[in-house]
Write a structure and sequence with these properties.
The structure is a single chain. The chain is of the alpha/beta class. It contains 9 helices and 15 strands. Helix 2 packs across helix 7. The longest helix has 23 residues. The mean pLDDT is 93.
């Protein structure tokens, strides 16, 4: 079968399309024929070697995939059943989705929700799944469409664009932060009411004018610190990214004086019940137009080039990989 294989030579990560025997697949009780995978920021770091994502080589990357069960030793799944997978360390320490087949543990799989297929599921992928978890966190914190405006940073990326579409569909007023003017029309089509330049979030005082009822932050660093200083009393920030840095130059003042909540979002190890609930909501609540607006489809042979483009901030929305 065809697969993208990462190997390491003298500290350098090498990515090559290879033909491998399915018997080489790692242990697991379900084997899946993969129709689609996708590219996330983490995949791009792994494939280019610019992030310490992979620690065991050789490795087939790809933290997401969707397809049909080929064979199963677990009673939860049967041959021919449509399934999807995101997270659980797949594509990091267990061979992942950028191959024609994957063998995984049954507990990691999600039965394909009604209304989705493999292509749509990968347009959503880890990015969209993370966006849904962020929306659910705002809801859990009591942020409703009547609470006020919600802001999304890194809005033209996979998580951000899905978050904008979801929030708009649910009735929220959405402000989007983007550093590229070329994405403004795209973000408006997804439902952004206004678009702000990311340079406006590069620095802040400990407290600023209360502006946002909620926020979904995919950037971290100074951008997150600025958001915290601008939150309304009782507001919530769901944070899931660190492209802008791992430090957080803020104070305790927003948390103590304005009762602000900072909620971290992890999609990799999300418990099964919440994972299933998030995917069911994604199937129901993402508008059909999202799938036309947000996806670029590539082949396995194009993955390495697109991984570099993602890290250079040259790709908008979602990149899905059709596995032939």
């Amino acid at each position: 079968m065809k697969a993208l294989v990462l190997e390491q030579n003298e500290g350098q990560t090498l990515a090559e399309i290879k033909t491998i025997d399915p018997s080489a697949l790692p242990a697991g009780d379900v084997t899946v024929d993969i129709d689609y995978s996708d590219l996330n920021y983490k995949d791009a770091l792994a494939i280019t070697g610019k992030g310490k994502i992979i620690r065991q080589f050789p490795m087939v990357p790809g933290i997401d995939f969707a397809g049909r069960v080929s064979s199963s030793e677990n009673s939860q799944f049967h041959a021919g059943q449509p399934v999807l997978l995101t997270g659980w360390g797949v594509g990091e320490n267990h061979w992942g989705g950028l191959a024609k087949q994957a063998r995984v543990n049954a507990d990691w799989l999600v039965p394909m929700p009604e209304g989705l297929n493999a292509r749509k599921a990968m347009i959503i992928g880890t990015a969209g799944f993370t966006a849904m978890l962020c929306v659910m966190a705002l809801e859990d914190a009591g942020v409703t469409p009547k609470s006020g405006e919600v802001i999304v940073t890194g809005a033209s990326g996979g998580v951000g664009s899905t978050a904008v579409a979801l929030l708009h569909h649910l009735g929220y007023q959405v402000a989007a932060v983007s550093g590229r003017s070329s994405t403004h029309s795209y973000l408006q089509q997804l439902g952004a009411g206004r678009i702000l330049d990311r340079d406006a979030f590069s620095d802040s005082r400990p407290l600023e004018k209360q502006t946002w009822a909620g926020a979904i932050d995919t950037v971290g660093g100074k951008v997150l610190a600025t958001l915290l200083a601008q939150m309304n009393y009782g507001g919530c920030v769901a944070t899931c990214g660190l492209a802008g840095g791992t430090s957080l130059p803020t104070t305790v003042m927003p948390f103590i004086l304005r009762n602000v909540r900072l909620q971290g979002i992890d999609s990799v190890m999300t418990p099964v019940a919440r994972r299933f609930a998030a995917w069911e909501r994604l199937a129901r609540e993402l508008p059909e137009s999202f799938y036309q607006q947000a996806a670029t489809e590539i082949t396995l042979d194009q993955v390495s080039a697109y991984a570099h483009a993602i890290l250079n901030n040259e790709v908008r929305g979602r990149t899905i990989v059709k596995i032939d």
